[in-house]
Amino acid sequence: MSEMKTVKRGELFMGRLSHGADLLDELTEICRRHHIRIGRIEAIGAVKKACIGFYNQQTRAYEYLAFEKEMEITKLSGNVSLKDGQVFVHAHVTLADSSGRAYGGHLAPGTIVFACECIIETFDGPAFERVLDQETGLALWEPRP
Residues 113, 41, 75, CA angle at the centre, nearest 5°? Predict the structure, then answer.
């Protein structure tokens, strides 16, 4: 059954990330520093190397691909919520190599920023906490009242 909650637009943060930073860690730290508990993230730019994941629905485990090459971030889309009471950034990314081949998946630690511009939109409303969903094996949103 679908569960939806009403939220209102909050603040909008725009900026660039640090050269050489871990992309996922940097986004998470920005959200922590600004007390963002619910929001969405977009980004474009380039990475020095990358790690992306794919959730195997049969084994209920993530499988990872590592790319030891420079790639363009053609699209990063994600959200901010809470997991175990802590800020949690969940993002998917599409990356393109020098031949124009695209790779996509779950943004994982080990993706190192060359240059990245991001937008983080916050929302005012009930926090969304990630809890284990027995049906999928994933930590999914459970909106608080």
Answer: 60
Q: How confident is the model at residue 85 (pLDDT cuts 50, 70, 90)?
A: very high
Q: Where are the domains of the chain?
A: 16-129
Q: Which residues contact 119 (CB under 8 A, 6 or more apart)?
A: 12, 13, 14, 41, 42, 43
Q: How far apart are the first and last CA of the chain?
A: 16
- Please tell me the pTM assigned to this model: 0.94
CA 31 – CA 9 distance, rounded (Å): 16
CB 27 within 8 A of CB 108: no
CATH class, range 16-129: alpha beta
Mean pLDDT of 128-138: 94
